Inverse folding.
């Protein structure tokens, strides 16, 4: 038994190295002076430690403008998802109305359609609306619901008992109050997970901004890093600094909400 | 409810229920029509036209589809995409399950290992691309540096026609943490009784894996297989960022969706790109259907 555990540790440590070494390398490069970056064989410890790489990176591209744009898009689309998806999911799971099942099946069917199919007509639609070059195409649709999230939340609401709603109805509570004050709070773990998924999707999105954010003042960090890379592709120290700054908020969030992350992914894999 | 309830009240309740149901679902009904149904129908139409954002275009029937059949780069992009899927999906399943099973031995520090495996999935794809370009840099990258120290001269990786796709598979394997977490949850769902019973029968470690663990894990494998195949066919950000949108070297990194994007938004052949999108849809549907159909033979649900 002990031999087996020791063997397991060896495997896990080897695998951990594969997963963690690139991070350390990213951090190490981001703090190295230029000459040391191009030393071969590679060196691990930056000397001297160049904190100025971070400052330089932030001035090569309009970092704070891009950060601001990213934060606005991420915040607004996450807000949209949290407002719209649970109430629609609740309606699918717990309210009885004509056409409900047909619409739910349509929602599942839509979920299976690859985004590329609607990409071009959507672009033309947003173009007609004059939204190209603004963050609106990346925000407004979230307020009208995302099929995958509606599906996940619906599965969660299905698991909640009807008796609570019935009791509240007898007490004379209105339908909206039943949703907002009784059912929604019960669905909090699922709503949090969905919000987290949207946050991640939005923060790391590349193709969306690439399609719609056509002028530089509206760029997100993803586009900023891509721009940096195509203009100054040899400044590895600065690019690793930008990459670190882009990744750090997600990692910090992860450490605060680790349980929600893991539960959300597990729920997706088991119920989805 | 109360048995004395009269029919008019019931009818009123039903109307009320209809009203609130529709009201609560109304954002999505609007969203479904605006952002899904309407674009979907227009996409079918566009695929039969020579539409571009610059000119209104004409109805050309099946011409786009016929042209695609004679488009070498179209076939090359399919080859590249299938290549990636064929290597990445099985490898991600094998490594994912293997690591989850080792974690499941419940060694000390299991939560720490799990976190470490999960961390790469938090890196934005564009940052992941830039990081791996640097790791795989032929002259000064860490990978070739390490190979050099054991006396191997590493290839040019992303700059080599032979090694570009394996590099992509390799860096994609770096991000399989989500699958590991799902496998781990699947393993935790297998009742200990089965293992205890097999101990009584004197089963060895390998027999337990073959007859208990893997069969009971098949629903989760099934989920990851479907998601993996769908994801592999929609690969875009990584190869786009790695090659600055060029698909270089020698189009060895031109993936299906990249070529679709180029047609639609670089060459403005939006009708042509729409036809590509529908072919992609059919490919994904057929593959998903095959996996679903085959699942009857190899997926075992507990309690059935």
């Amino acid at each position: 038994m002990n031999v087996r555990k020791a063997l397991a540790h060896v495997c896990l440590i080897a695998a951990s190295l594969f997963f963690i070494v690139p991070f350390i390398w990213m951090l190490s490069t981001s703090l190295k002076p230029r000459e040391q970056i191009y030393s071969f064989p590679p060196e691990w410890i930056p000397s001297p430690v160049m904190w100025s790489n971070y400052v330089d990176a932030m001035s090569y591209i309009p970092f704070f403008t891009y950060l601001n744009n990213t934060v606005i898009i991420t915040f607004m689309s996450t807000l949209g998802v949290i407002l719209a998806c649970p109430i629609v999911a609740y309606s699918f799971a717990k309210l009885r109305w004509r056409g409900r099942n047909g619409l739910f099946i349509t929602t599942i069917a839509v979920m299976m359609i690859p985004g590329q199919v609607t990409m071009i007509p959507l672009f033309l639609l947003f173009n007609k609306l004059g939204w190209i070059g603004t963050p609106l195409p990346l925000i407004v649709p979230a307020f009208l619901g995302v099929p995958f999230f509606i599906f996940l939340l619906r599965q969660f609401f299905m698991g909640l008992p009807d008796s609570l709603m019935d009791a509240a109805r007898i007490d004379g509570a209105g339908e909206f109050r039943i949703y907002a004050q009784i059912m929604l709070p019960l669905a909090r773990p699922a709503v949090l997970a969905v919000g987290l998924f949207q946050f991640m999707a939005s923060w790391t999105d590349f193709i969306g901004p690439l399609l719609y954010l056509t002028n530089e003042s509206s760029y997100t960090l993803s586009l900023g890093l891509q721009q940096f890379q195509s203009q100054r592709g040899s400044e590895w120290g600065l690019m690793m600094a930008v990459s670190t700054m882009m990744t750090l908020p997600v990692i910090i969030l992860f450490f605060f909400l680790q349980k929600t992350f893991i539960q959300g992914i597990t729920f997706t894999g088991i119920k989805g | 409810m109360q048995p004395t309830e009269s029919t008019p009240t019931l009818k009123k309740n039903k109307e009320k229920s209809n009203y609130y149901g529709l009201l609560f679902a109304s954002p999505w009904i609007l969203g479904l029509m605006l952002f899904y149904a309407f674009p979907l129908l227009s996409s079918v139409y566009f695929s039969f036209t020579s539409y571009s954002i610059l000119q209104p275009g004409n109805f050309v029937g099946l011409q786009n589809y016929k042209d695609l059949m004679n488009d070498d780069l179209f076939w090359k992009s399919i080859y590249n995409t299938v290549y990636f899927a064929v290597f990445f999906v099985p490898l991600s399943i094998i490594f994912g399950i293997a690591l989850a099973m080792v974690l499941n031995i419940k060694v000390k520090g299991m939560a720490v290992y799990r976190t470490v495996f999960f961390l790469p999935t938090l890196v934005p794809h564009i940052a992941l691309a830039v990081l791996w370009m640097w790791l795989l840099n032929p002259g000064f990258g860490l990978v070739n540096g390490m190979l050099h120290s054991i006396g191997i001269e590493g290839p040019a990786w992303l700059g080599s026609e032979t090694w570009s796709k394996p590099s992509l598979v390799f860096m994609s394997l770096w991000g399989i943490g989500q699958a590991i977490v799902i496998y781990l949850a699947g393993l935790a769902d297998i009742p200990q009784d089965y293992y205890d019973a097999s101990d009584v029968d004197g089963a060895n470690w390998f027999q337990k894996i073959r007859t208990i663990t893997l069969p009971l894990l098949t629903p989760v494998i099934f989920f990851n297989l479907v998601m993996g195949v769908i994801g592999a066919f929609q690969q875009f950000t990584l190869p786009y960022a790695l090659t600055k949108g060029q698909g270089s070297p020698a189009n060895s990194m031109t993936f299906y969706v990249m070529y679709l994007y180029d047609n639609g938004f670089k060459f403005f052949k939006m009708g042509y790109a729409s036809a590509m999108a529908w072919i992609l849809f059919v490919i994904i549907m057929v593959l998903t259907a095959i996996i679903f159909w085959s699942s009857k033979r190899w997926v075992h649900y507990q309690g059935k």
